[in-house]
Amino acid sequence: MNPANTSRTCSRCGHCPKENRVTQAGFRCTACGHTAHADVNAAVNILGAGPALRDAARAAWREAAPFRSGGVTPGKNAPLSTSAAAVS
Ligand SMILES: [Zn+2]
What we know:
Blueprint: E1 26-28, E2 35-37, H1 38-47, H2 50-63, H3 65-69, H4 82-87
Antiparallel strand pairs: 1-2
């Protein structure tokens, strides 16, 4: 893949018109409607992982949620965030 095109190539479907790059930071695919931060979309293209990488990133983000909140110490089962537990 040409690195010059990574910022405008859709990481979902591979569509690559210049119209995909709507702003400096924004990406929106004119073919499939996929939207993303332009840098994130480009990074996914460069890594070549596509949807599998996005799914893995989402899963890691969800699994790390209790630690980001600061309500749970890793290794302890501290029942501080009952509201967060109800949401998840
Ligand atoms: Zn697309």
